[in-house]
Amino acid sequence: MSVELIVLVVVLVAALAAALLGAYLTAHRLDRLHIRTDLARAALAGALERRHAVAAAVARDLADRDPPGAYRLFHALARARAHPPDAVAGPDPAPQPPPRRRTDRADDDEAGENAELAENTLGMMLAALDVEALPVDLASELEDATDRVSMARRFYNDAVRDTRGLREQTAVRALRLAGRAPMPNYVELVDAPPPRA
User: Fold this and answer.
1) SS3 at position 49
2) How many CB atoms are located within 10 Å of the residue 186 CB?
3) How far apart, in whole angstroms, are the C-alpha atoms of residue 63 and residue 66?
């Protein structure tokens, strides 16, 4: 064997090892990003559930002073609670037993859009309330729940942006490093307008 051939083999083996190491590190980063997205999805679902509980308390408080407003708030809350907690951000992609029948993906997307619409309606109704008329503890609880939903939505969308950014790289798609994990989608929840001065 000549020296040139040995050098060529060593260079090729080193390049292959570097490529495999890069693919392994990218797959590991992608796995961590999927975990981050799953945790952010769970936090968003929890924040929405907490906002539902606070909205129910606000509607009960409004029932004596403003029955039509309380009815509208109860109706918006019922529409928001009609969807499972994870309908806004999509289902948890954790391995589950296979469904007995296949569901249509378009139905899942439509359910998510309806859930977002219901949550946006509830959020806008809560933002339009006169907070000064509520008891102080309930007003602060409402403000805290609304802020937590806003932060959870931002954290979730940041995780989705980072995950999608890595998954859309050519090498990740070509090597199928994401496996069978579904592509996460953004959540479009309307933030409450700033408080009136």
Assistant:
1) helix
2) 13
3) 6
Confidence (pTM): 0.82
Q: pLDDT, tens digit, for every residue of 119-175?
A: 999 999 999 998 898 999 999 999 999 999 999 999 999 999 999 999 999 999 998
- Asked if 30 contacts 172 with a C-beta cutoff of 8 angstroms, the reply is yes
Q: Which amino acid is at 197?
A: A
Residue 48 contacts residue 23 (beta carbons within 8 Å): no
Compute CA distances 16 → 7, 167, 180, 189, whole Å.
14, 22, 25, 45
The position carrying tokens 């004596």 is 64
Amino acid type, 120? N
Q: What is the CA radius of gyration of the chain?
A: 24
Q: Write down how long the chain is.
A: 197
Residues 6+ apart with CB under 8 A from 139: 131, 132
What does the block give as tokens for 196? 């009136």
